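Page 47, continued from p. 46.
Same chain as before, 150 aa.
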Amino acid sequence: MTLPKETVRSGRHSAEEQALMGLEFGTAAAALGGGILLALRPDGAFLHSGPSVLRHTPFQDWRLPGLLLAAGCGGGYLAAGLLHLRRHHAARRVSVAAGVTLIGLEGWEIAFIEYQPLELVLAGVGAAVVVLALRLPPEAPTAGVPLPGC
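Result:
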């Protein structure tokens, strides 16, 4: 018994898809960069964010939060952007999950770390990703180019 191959849709990306991928790749770059800088300097010196703001969290320094930011947020948004670029049928679901996760992360930061206006901006980015992803056509494998190795 052979399983159906994963497929991608072919053709040009719409303006909405391009905007969505721009938000995803931009957010991935910011999260990867910021997370790596926090992990490299757990005292927060690279980003001018001292560990004292972590006093209401289980973290003593920025190393683990930085790694979580880079891997979770950065990796998630990078995966979503790449899936959209490839027009993979799972792209919409991954984008919605990434957007909802970012909204939750920013809410947690506001509640437990320290309010900064940038957190509302990033929550807005997460919301925009969710809205743009949900505006895309429903997921359904369509005829297209098979993914490598499938």
